[in-house]
Amino acid sequence: MDKRFWICGLAMSVATLLLGFVVHGLLLADDYAPLVGTLLRTPEDAQRLFPWMLLADVLIGFTMTWLYRFGFSEGRSTIGQGLRFGLAVALLASVPMHLIYFAVQPTPAALAVKQVVLDTIRFLLLGVLIAYLQPRRVVL
C-alpha cells in the first residue's frame, strides 16, 4: 500500500462521513424523528456509539479505495468509471442492506425508498470521487 492509497482512503473516509451526515442527518432527519426511541436510538445513545459510526466510515473509505484498484480500466472515462463503480458498490452493500432492514424492521416503506435512492446517489458520488483520486496513479 503506497502513500497515495492512504491519502485516498482518508479522503474517501471523510467524504463518506460527510455525505452520510447530509443524507441521514439532514435530508432524512424528519423521516427519522418519529422513530427515535423506538426503532432508532436516542441522540444520547447515538452520540455514545459514534466511534462505531466513524469505524464504519473508515471501513467504507478504505475498502472502496482498495477495491477501485482492481476495478480500474485503462481508456475509460473517469466519470463513467466512477459512476459504474459507485453503482456496483451501492448494489452490493447499501441497497441490499436497506431492503433487509425493511424486511426485518418496521421501517416505513416511504423511508426505505428514500434511503435506497439517497444512499445510491451517495455511493455514485463516492465512486466519482475515487475515480478522480485514482489510487493507481504513480504521482500524487
UniProtKB/TrEMBL annotation:
<feature type="transmembrane region" description="Helical">
    <location>
        <begin position="116"/>
        <end position="133"/>
    </location>
</feature>
<feature type="transmembrane region" description="Helical">
    <location>
        <begin position="49"/>
        <end position="70"/>
    </location>
</feature>
<protein>
    <submittedName>
        <fullName>Uncharacterized protein</fullName>
    </submittedName>
</protein>
<feature type="transmembrane region" description="Helical">
    <location>
        <begin position="82"/>
        <end position="104"/>
    </location>
</feature>
<keyword id="KW-0812">Transmembrane</keyword>
<feature type="transmembrane region" description="Helical">
    <location>
        <begin position="7"/>
        <end position="29"/>
    </location>
</feature>
<keyword id="KW-0472">Membrane</keyword>
<keyword id="KW-1133">Transmembrane helix</keyword>
